[in-house]
Amino acid sequence: MNLNSSHLLNSSYSQTEPKEEPHLIAAVELPAPDTSLNAMSEIGYPAQRTNSLVMQKTEALRQVFEQHRQERQLVILQDFPDPDALSSAWTYQLIAQEYEIQCDIVYAGTLSHQENIALVKLTGLPAQRWTAQAAKSKDLSMYTGCALIDTQGTTSQLLPIVQDSGIPITAVVDHHSLQGDLKAEFADLRPTVRATATIFTQYLQAGLLKLDSSVAQHIKCATALMHGLRSDTDRLMQAQEDDFLAAAYLSRFHDAQLLNAILQANRSKRVMDVIERSLKNRMVQNNFSIAGVGYLRYDDRDAIPQAADFLVTEENVHTAVVYGIVHDDDEELELVIGSLRTTKLTLDPDEFIKEAFGQDSHGRFFGGGRTSAGGFEVPIGFLAGYIETSDYAKKKWEVFDTQIKQKLLRLVNPKDNPIQTE
Q1: Nearest Cα to 353, choosing from 368, 342, 338, 341?
Q2: From CA 36, how far away is CA 57, in angstroms rounded?
Q3: Vertex 219: Cα angle to 218 and 223 (nearest 5)
Q4: SS3 label, residue 331
Q5: CATH number at residue 191
Q6: Does the residue 342 lie in any domain?
Q7: Most confident of 20-24, 42-46, 371-375
Q8: Rounded Cα distance, 23 and 265, in Å
Q9: How many structural domains is the chain composed of?
Q10: Strand, helix or coil at 403?
């Protein structure tokens, strides 16, 4: 990819979207509208802007489910799943049950964001943590396929292990831009949609599963979807027609009190400490706030995006990038992990991060993004491992801190490109 940095920062915002994927639903003013897809067709929505793509994708997914009746699948999430991924995976599992397909929802990392923990605990969302080491020792022969939900595998330690076991990819459903060449029986990649939860809600509207307000599990799943949709659209501030109509449909079934309880979860002291560290270490260039927060435990990884959420609210700052070295002693894993948040409409986080950090030797980007947010993960490589002395740890951090800043400032301020370290 050869992107001009000035284009990224100053050009009009544009999304990379397939021409064959127009807006699916057009809004009209009607009293007490029925937001089901069939109803919208009946009341005169233009055919090309209603349910054609949704129905096409829904029917294709239904056929895939039919072909795999009574089988067992893995549903793989990114290592640190967010509400959008968790709720969408749960919906996939419930739909699959209609075809007697048993699904196990798995992720390799951890749930450290207080709202994610509350979501899983309060709804009973059936997601399991499989560390990479544990996955290698499991008998995976019972699984005939896997599904990638809200990810394309680039942020999962589990996908390579699953693929090495010969398990094919049955389905990929994601709202992020294409990250690489994936071979799957079914794929629904729609970067024009703000949340994967919106896509799955459209599957529900199209009839893959009929939600029943008398079924507790359906109520909790609808609540999770509403949270996922709300989370990935910045409390609906970035929502488009599809997202609003999906939210209108979910409003019939979700539990408002349960959703409020999830949203009221408090930040932990560790998260507050990382936010404090980001404030202390931040540097501001051309309205970008950039902060390295040093070393974090693997379980505290979600403090990084929360710190970015906080820094972007500073006066005269439109974009915040926060990063740190995340390590897991048990798994002997070490990564540079970062998050980007922006309010600048002309900055595309996906293009910005891909341009800043590039690709690995296999052509997979180290990061990407969506509207207003993005993230990246860079393996430490040869320098990963046990830190014997504080002096060594300091030197190691300075090397990565300087390199990350240099890559970011090359785009933020390409003329001066100053490097500041403490």
Answers
A1: 368
A2: 16
A3: 115
A4: coil
A5: 3.90.1640.10
A6: yes
A7: 371-375
A8: 35
A9: 2
A10: helix
